[in-house]
Each structure stands twice: as C-alpha cells, then as structure tokens.
Amino acid sequence: MKKIFYLLLLGFVFVKVQAQIINPVKWEPRIEKKSTSEYVLTFNGNIEAGWHVYSQFTPEDGPLPAEFIFHDNKSNYEFIGKATESETKREFNEIFGVDEIFFSDKVTFTQLIKQINPEKEIIQVELSYQVCKENCISETKYFEFNLKTLEAKEIQAADIVNEKTTKTDANSTIEKQPESKESDSSLYMIFFIAFLSGFAALLTPCVFPMIPMTVSFFTKQSKTKAKGIKNAIIYGISIILIYVFLGTVITLIFGADALNALSTNVWFNVIFFVLLVVFSLSFLGAFEIMLPNSWANKVDRQADKGGILGIVFMALALAIVSFSCTGPIIGTLLVEAASKGGIAPIVGMLGFSFALALPFMLFAMFPGWLNTLPKSGGWLNTVKVFLGFIELALAFKFLSNADLVLQLHWFEREIFLAIWIAIFGTLAFYLFGKITLPHDSPSSSISVGRLSIGLVVLVFTIYLIPGLWGAPLKLISGFPPPMTYSESPYGVGGSNRESTSAIALPDGAHKGPHDIMAFTDYEKGLAYAKSVNKPILLDFTGFACVNCRKMEDYVWSDPRILSILNNEVVLISLYVDDKRELPIEEQYVSKETGKKIKSIGNKWSDFQITRYKANAQPYYIILDTKEKSLNQPVGYMPDITEYEQWLKYGIKQFQK
C-alpha cells in the first residue's frame, strides 16, 4: 500500500515533466525589399508565457546568447549596419555572476543586407539560441529568404545547400542594437542608489557647510518670505537641471546602449578601475580633484547679476566649487549607470541631484530647521574618507570583470576577497580611530555613531573571511568572481583534498560539482556502471543552463543528496551546448529532427530527443545497467526532500 501511495505521489509531483519535445518559441521570418539591391530580413519570435530567450549580447560567462550563421555570404551579399533587437530586459544572475539580457513574450531580430551577386537569390540563415523557464532548451532553427519572390520560411537542416558558413562577428551582424531599454525595476534601483549617493555627497566638507550659507542668502536678500522660498525652489530645480543635463550629454554622446556594450569590454573595465582608484585616493586625502578656478570666478560674476539667471549661475557655482567632493561620486555613479545602458545615466543624475537639491529647498522653506543641523567639523572628513574606502573596494570589481572576460585567472576569487578583507578591515581600524589620515582633525575620542558604523564594518569584514575557505557569501553575490573561478574549488587550504580525490579515476571520469565523480561520455559511464553494478543518474545539462547550476549549487550540495551522488549512483552528465566539433566521420544528420549533428552538444541533444522525446535541461533519469528507466524523468526540482525521494525510489527499483 505504501509503495502504491508513493508511486501516485511521484506521478502527481512529476506530471509536468513527462518526456516531451518542448517548443516555446514560434518563429515567423519575413523579408522586405528596401531598394533595388537592399533587403531587410526579420526574425519574429512569439515566446510562450513564462519563458525567455537570451539576447545576442548576454555577457560572457552567462547563459548562451542568440547567434546567427549566414550561409555562403562572402561573395553574394554584405551586411549593412548593425543587427538590431527588440526591447530587452536585464536582471542580475547570482549563479553566473553577470547580468542576463533577455526577451519575454516577443522577440525580433532585424538585419539589413545588400545583394552583391544578382544571380544569388536564396539566403539561408541558421539561428541558435537558448530559451529558459524552469528548464532550458538549446535550439537551432533554419530559415530561407528568397530575394526574388520575397518569400521567407523555416526549413530543415537537410535543406541547407551550402555548408560554407560565415559566423557573424563584431564586423558583420552581431552588434549592439541601437535601442535597448532598461527594465523599470533596474531604473528604479539606479534612481535609489543615485539618491543615496547624492545624500552622501551632501555630507561632505565641500557641500554641507554651503547649506546654511545659501539658505541665509535667500532669506536675507528676498523682500518677502514667499520670495525667498520661490528663489530657493528655483535654485534647487537649477541644481537638478544641471546634473540631469550632464547625464543627458553622456547618453547622447555615447548612445543609449554604447556604454552598455562596453560593460564587458576589457579596456573599459581597466580604465574605470584606474579612475575609481584615483577617485578613492582623492577622497582619502592624497590630493584634490578640482575644476579650474577661472570657471568658478566667471560663474560667480554671472551669479551676482541677480534674477532667475543669477540663481541658475549660483547653482552652477555650487556644482563647480563642490566638484572635489562630488566629482568622484558622480564619476562612479555615471560609470555604473552607463554600464546599464539606455537612459540610466539620466535617471542616475536625476536621483543624485534631487537628493542634493532637496535640503536647500526645505531649509529655505523652514529656516528654523537650520538650528537642528550639526556643526561642521571633523566628522565631514570622516564621511569623505569612508566614501573613499567604498570606492576603492568597488574599483576592484572592474578589474575582476576584465580578468573574467580574458579568463587570465590572475585575479581569482581568493585574491578579490583578500583585497576586500584588507580594505574593509583597514576602514574598521580607521573608524575606531586607530588610523588617521592627512585631513583628519585630532581627537581624543570617537562618537557613538562612528563606533557603531565601525562595528558594522568589522562584522562585514569577519563575514568575508570564510569566503577564502569556500563559503558562498550570498550577501555580496555578484561582486566577487564566481566560486568556480578560483585557485581551488574548496577555497584556501583545500588543494590537498582536491588532489587526493582525483587519484585513480576510471577512464572517462572527472571530478564534477562538489567533487562528485562524473562522466561526460555516455558509453564510458555506462561501462563503468556495469562494472560496479550501480544505477546511472543520467543528467542532461548545459554549461549555460541557469537552473542546472542552481540544482548543482543548492540541491546537490545538500549532505543527503551529495552522499547519494557520491556512493549510490554513477553520474553521467551530457552537455547539450558543448560547442566542440565532432570528428568529420562522426557527424551525421539526425533521423529524428533532420538537423546536422556537428558538435558534441548536438550529439547529446539529439540523443535526448531521439531516445527520451525531450529537449529541456536540466533533465534527470535513473537507469539500470541495461539502460532501462527506473522512474519518471524529472526536470528542475529545487525541493531537496522531493529530489531525495525521487533518487531513492529509482535506487530501490534497481535493487529489486
């Protein structure tokens, strides 16, 4: 009775992951004639609810980006301009440590081409992409465009008539689209961070003392209270307009998404690492970054003229005079906002300037509040130094990005964490008064507020230390390199365990996630399972499969699951997105799908589709040594207890 109940339970839980070919994107190609020799090729995709397709421009080390292969194009047609995409969304992926760029509901790719050879009327295009929901699917679709009849259709791989292919690159079709909007949530976050940055700038020695001076000027020079309030509001609005203008100029000069394109560029990251280090040294007191005094003098003369124009020049004078304090903050903010693309620089400057202008307007409306302001003093320099340490820490994120893109492994996770521990540890000592810097005022004691912040920084520093030994540090997920990008997957001190665990591995085996012995070749894994008489856990996965990594990081790492995977099954992980080409003699056309099987990933994807009528990843099956399924296949299953029950049921069936 218990077994019957358990079978019913499994059937209920896994009914949604029965073997099936999933096709969540329906494509509609289209061709339009623009001139006698120019044509617009359009790929319209309708995406089922809940699924999303990754953009061509998803950063490296993330999910698989969409990719085009235009067949036989070298002498028949050329690309005009950049390939464009419809509106994308952006979200940070904690698993890969990068921003995902993807489409929901609909996706459109557009490419303008020019016909060179009038006799060549057929264009054939191969589109590879990844589409994910709870599971991920790596798909390849083939399209044919007729330049004479203006017909467009989807075709089978076997219909590709010319195998001389040219993969698109930075000089052909895969380029940054000219328009790509940030998701609303990302813009809200940029605004919020910018607002906090503006508030931080307000508490620096260059800005804070100007609040009572400016407010007093408006209240004394205005004939009535209402006039003073009006002038102060104009002053605040002028501050906002000046900084928003700066954000607009950045956006217009570089384009809505050009800086976003640079976010994974090595030189971009290295240059901004240097800039942030310079900014941080300025805040720490090594030197001051100032605009020319002549600028301030000219602006002051204009401000003396009075009227609305004079008030606007007063706001400009504030921006120039306070630049030594606000410049590094603005620079950091613009770098971060610009890397998000779209109108993020404008939104960032709006948030920053609003926080900066608001106190001037409020204190002008309520002058009595000035008496509640703390007096200027050494605490202002403490704020400035605190910001310097934060900027120094952020600088190393850009250096880390450059190293990740190049895969140099010079700046791995342990080095990054060691630097952050040193920076925040030094900051804690500074806040406790154990270290002084050039512009600090002498003091025999520290305030309760400074002590409290120092304790928070110290706790954070101590929190970082276990990361050297492999702790996940979810609080700062996305800042350090991923755990897989480290000197040792076990953290500092784990190299011996790694080397000893790699001894006497059977042929074809390697150490997979969490040191689990795994095979990436089905036949070799099957032969080993027969030799040790253990069931097989067949894992259809992908290097760029988000939920595959989630299962490995959060489910397989559980001691209950890890014990089963290490001792009771033979793990065979087949990567369907492995791009390594098969030897020519092993390439073939699939009888099931008609697709050309050219790579190792193609082979395992076809194996999954042909044998199990499924094409999604992750996809798990437990087999006996005769390749018979022992339970229902399952996909993404984040519930550890359910996954454990599923594993145990398959193993129990094997033991009967």
From TrEMBL:
Source taxonomy: Bacteria, Pseudomonadati, Bacteroidota, Flavobacteriia, Flavobacteriales
Residue ranges annotated for the Cytochrome C biogenesis protein transmembrane domain, each copy included: 189-400
Annotated protein name in UniProt: DUF255 domain-containing protein
GO biological process: cell redox homeostasis; cytochrome complex assembly
Location(s), subcellular: Membrane
Thiol:disulfide interchange protein DsbD N-terminal domain span: 40-141
Top-level taxon of origin: Bacteria
Annotated InterPro entries: Cyt_c_assmbl_TM_dom, DsbDN, Thioredoxin-like_sf
Membrane topology: Multi-pass membrane protein
PANTHER family tied to this protein: THIOL:DISULFIDE INTERCHANGE PROTEIN DSBD (PTHR32234:SF0)
Keywords (A to Z) from UniProt: Cytochrome c-type biogenesis, Membrane, Transmembrane, Transmembrane helix
Example of a GO cellular component annotation carried by this entry: membrane
GO molecular function ontology, one term from the record: protein-disulfide reductase activity
Gene3D superfamilies named in the record: Glutaredoxin
Transmembrane segments: 187-211, 232-254, 266-287, 308-330, 342-366, 378-395, 415-432, 453-471
A Pfam match: DsbD_N
Native organism: Flavobacterium macacae
